[in-house]
Amino acid sequence: MDFKKLIGNAKQIEGFKCRVCPQCNGKACRGEVPGPGGKDSGMAFIRNYDKLNEIKVNLDTIYAPVSVDTSLELFGKPFRYPIFAAPIGGLIPNYGDKHGIDDYHYSKAIIEGCKRAGTIGFTGDGAKDEFYTEPLRVIQENEGWGIPTIKPWKQEEVIKRIELAEKAGVPAVAMDIDAAGLILLAMAGKPVSPKPVEELKEIISATKLPFILKGIMTAKGAEKALETGASGIVVSNHGGRVLDHTPATVEVLPEIVRAVGGKMKILIDGGIRTGLDVLKVLALGADGVLIGRPYVVAAFGGAAEGVELYTNRIGVELEEAMLMTGCGSLQEITSEVIYK
Amino acid sequence: MDFKKLIGNAKQIEGFKCRVCPQCNGKACRGEVPGPGGKDSGMAFIRNYDKLNEIKVNLDTIYAPVSVDTSLELFGKPFRYPIFAAPIGGLIPNYGDKHGIDDYHYSKAIIEGCKRAGTIGFTGDGAKDEFYTEPLRVIQENEGWGIPTIKPWKQEEVIKRIELAEKAGVPAVAMDIDAAGLILLAMAGKPVSPKPVEELKEIISATKLPFILKGIMTAKGAEKALETGASGIVVSNHGGRVLDHTPATVEVLPEIVRAVGGKMKILIDGGIRTGLDVLKVLALGADGVLIGRPYVVAAFGGAAEGVELYTNRIGVELEEAMLMTGCGSLQEITSEVIYK
Amino acid sequence: MDFKKLIGNAKQIEGFKCRVCPQCNGKACRGEVPGPGGKDSGMAFIRNYDKLNEIKVNLDTIYAPVSVDTSLELFGKPFRYPIFAAPIGGLIPNYGDKHGIDDYHYSKAIIEGCKRAGTIGFTGDGAKDEFYTEPLRVIQENEGWGIPTIKPWKQEEVIKRIELAEKAGVPAVAMDIDAAGLILLAMAGKPVSPKPVEELKEIISATKLPFILKGIMTAKGAEKALETGASGIVVSNHGGRVLDHTPATVEVLPEIVRAVGGKMKILIDGGIRTGLDVLKVLALGADGVLIGRPYVVAAFGGAAEGVELYTNRIGVELEEAMLMTGCGSLQEITSEVIYK
Amino acid sequence: MDFKKLIGNAKQIEGFKCRVCPQCNGKACRGEVPGPGGKDSGMAFIRNYDKLNEIKVNLDTIYAPVSVDTSLELFGKPFRYPIFAAPIGGLIPNYGDKHGIDDYHYSKAIIEGCKRAGTIGFTGDGAKDEFYTEPLRVIQENEGWGIPTIKPWKQEEVIKRIELAEKAGVPAVAMDIDAAGLILLAMAGKPVSPKPVEELKEIISATKLPFILKGIMTAKGAEKALETGASGIVVSNHGGRVLDHTPATVEVLPEIVRAVGGKMKILIDGGIRTGLDVLKVLALGADGVLIGRPYVVAAFGGAAEGVELYTNRIGVELEEAMLMTGCGSLQEITSEVIYK
């Protein structure tokens, strides 16, 4: 299978709510929640994409080339690329019910494909318990090689889910704290809510796993995340699905990097579509990226093989971008790469 | 009735001059005066809308949630939301003559619908006396629960209308001073004109009702409004219907807030279409908002029930936006909510 | 005749090269030289229009209204409005040969129409001698009430043409110095060229008439114009017809106003389409405006009556704009009117 | 043959991958590599074009005109215009295989046409040896009047090719160092790579010919180029074909001019389409320009005659632009020409 075939497959899936656009930029699906889109005007998704494209990079090929190394260590584990699949849950309500790809099958593609490509996939949670447990079953079937992402439920519910994750042998666990106002959950009557630092501290101290807080969009939020004892954050506006008209994640990244001061790992998602995008956010201080919707296309179009193929594609693009900007390793991707 | 049904109804009204666009942004109706549009190029209306959308907000859900309270007190009266229906008059000339919805029936929907939703509606005035008196009759039928808005007629005419309003038992009275050059009135040969501070002082001191000056677009104008003894102002460019190429209301809001220094209440209209827009202008210092054209759609599509439905819809959106930005009450909506 | 009829007429003229667009903004005719367009990309014309629209004005109707006075004195003559018809020559090559409206008939409409409306028209010059002499004949038939505009020919040729103008009894004479590279003239083999300050001094000292230099686009150019002894300048990029990618005239106006320091009269043309545009450039320091292409539509659609109608239309719009921004006379139109 | 005929010819070529757009701006062919386009989103090509158009120039025709002189000396040779054909190789893979115009025939048009017009053409290199040797054969047939451009191969390969160039009697030799990551070469398995200053020094000291480094996009890169002993650089992003989302060449030109401080000649390419564009980049400090894709149209549409015609066309446009901005010679084209 090549990438063209993968895209062709994805386009033919019956009832697939994603249009498999040539550019996954949030325009065609704007407002489609449930569905693949951003909330209301869709601008929070669209802006993620647009603001990345506004960033320009410095081409320079006068240097002594070395082999380009895209590998990194994160939370004590080695990865081939700083590229991870973002958690996506509720496959049937969001992507259609005719294709039969539920949270189990989707997670299977993600977890196995990322593993084959040398990275790792995040899995989701949602209105039904199975949106959490089914993906976790896939992780278990893959020796714990996945990162479950828990919604901000009541404390005891969160802690119960972390315990399930621990049993599955995962390397880390995450919470998408920005799901506090998620429409789909409100519709299902499941009580999620914002959480103060104290409650997050309680949760994080209840596990020995590295804990990742996803949905940080301000320096202040990052400082609060630091206080909670989290090992990392994901700068994310939930793909624009929880609040319209937020800034782009790449816009708030620099101030968050300054606020964190190296004391936590910083991942970022939001409109990252190419290896050059990965280079850009790493140059701005991120340690790695999460990619969401394109992985849905990869998984639907090629299952685990498609996910592996897509991950390697973005990885190779990152290598090319590093070559053209004089970066031999991820550490060498500094702010000098960005045109000011 | 739900919102979709309301929109469907509005679209089927015979001869309705409003196109019921998915986004009420001033583009389709540009130049349509009489009609629902902005004057000439329509840019003063369009810019109101666009500039609101350019404002980005800070998502933050790490905090101790409380129940969200959207209520406020204004001019001594309690309201459920800081959301009010703007005065609109001349329904037949502006919105068509085939549907039979005149100023009386329109005001009936607005006054009763807002009342049911826990807020209040402003009513209009215009080329014919009945554009003022018919809405006032509706207000009277609703125990005075409405705010009449008087054009800048000659002094004695204004004072006469205020007296009618007092008799109707209204909580406040307004004047759209920016109607001084309104085309429709010029066409009908009715003498409106700008008014100096002295004349406005005379008017305002002639009544014990709180007086609201609508159509302030500069800090200097706000300072003059303060001198007049007005209890509040509405930052408004009359929906772009009196002068082309003004700035957006949300652009001039901050400097007006600074000029007023808390000494008057500040309402604002102009392109406010969502609860998130309400949050944005409150964060910039407004005390409440007026919404115009979408209430026409609500009233035409669902009468008082539609107006109530629409008001609650925007109110619930405001609640959601407050939840996602860490604001438990209107007082907590500060400039920290705005992304800079 | 009303304006709608005028436009309707203009649209039906056989072979009229102007498309009579709803917005005369340089887009449809871009690159059409000969023809009505701007040179090459047409951006110098388009930018004139766009930059005017970017300027926003301060609505303020809290003031003691007086009757609005749009009159002015210029070069010792009284005018009803600060609105003049720009010189346009070569009607057949630029606007088509089927309609039979040559430079004589066009000038007749312009000169007579402007006179009736209380202003004055500029006339043109060009590749053929008759492009200068025929309009001058019209001016003579109207007691000298027109301002001929001479191309930068050789000295003796210019002086000869000024003498003809003096005999016709004109109140002033102009030169479009920016025609130095005009394509149409180059095609006709007529020697025009830039002129140094000395040559312009020689020309200007050869007449007692006020002399207006048209085609100034820099502060430095304005300073040189001052040295020549000119009585006034026209800030103009020749409607974008002599050089692509110049700034808009309204962009360079403020620095030219500063350089001139009140020592010459400053007129401006370039995309002025409404009375509000007139208010904007007067607020930025201009003494009056020239309007070009819309006068072609007015003259073709309604002859002298059309020109009078159009001039009054723009004049009334100026009055309305003054009313809404608190300006009782042209002197009161200051930079305070502009939103910053 | 005139230019219209040339364009008409080009449009009728069977299988020509270039669409011969009215504006050669990178939009229609975006992502077409191989093909005529920019890489991926094509934005690096498009931005070159757009940023040039954003630059505005100062019209001024009050000066003593002299005859306009567009000639210059470069690397000891006289040229009529500062306008050169950029190196383009791999004609069959990039522009189609049905028209039969290979690198030999293309170079013949370029080399002979530029020579006739009084300038010089650069030739290319590529995946196959003949992409270098065939153009060089044309140069030899024209008394060495061409500048071969060598890819960043291994040292011995580069030096071998320089020796071939020396034998052909060329006035200078170039290297497109930014081809270090060229997709087409990677596909053909040919080892190109970045080169450190030391390797470039070794290459440059191996020849007495002036050496031009093409593909400089940063001040730092220009400083490194200075260290290598190069006689000149070409500010270039390879027409957007080697890295997406670089800045435009005209954006980085000023800082490179500052870094070079007059110690090397500075050429530039990237979206230059008119004589006015040439004036703009010369005003910003460049010594001359390379033009790429439009020369393909000229060569395909008119062979050597077309190339001569096109070069003169751009040259005459440059003359006109100089006349309208008061520049009698290339030295007089200073930053004063640019509107700030």
Notes on the protein architecture:
Four copies of one chain form a homotetramer. Chain A has 340 residues and is α/β, with parallel strands linked by helices. The mean pLDDT of chain A is 96. Chain A is 43% helix and 11% strand. The longest helix of chain A has 32 residues, at 293-324. The first copy, chain A, has one domain (3-337): TIM Barrel (Alpha-Beta Barrel), CATH 3.20.20. The radius of gyration of chain A is 19 Å and the shape is globular. Chain A has an eight-stranded parallel beta sheet with strand order 3-10-9-8-7-6-5-4. A two-stranded antiparallel ribbon of chain A has the order 1-2. In chain A, α1 (3-11) runs antiparallel to α12 (293-324) and α8 (197-205) packs across α9. Chains in contact: A-B, A-D, B-C, C-D. Chains A, B, C, D: Its cofactor is FMN. Chains A, B, C, D: Belongs to the FMN-dependent alpha-hydroxy acid dehydrogenase family. Chains A, B, C, D: GO terms for molecular function: FMN binding; oxidoreductase activity.
Comma- or semicolon-separated keywords:
alpha/beta; 12 helices; 340 residues; flavoprotein (chains A, B, C, D); TIM Barrel; homotetramer; oxidoreductase activity (chains A, B, C, D); two-stranded antiparallel ribbon; FMN binding (chains A, B, C, D)
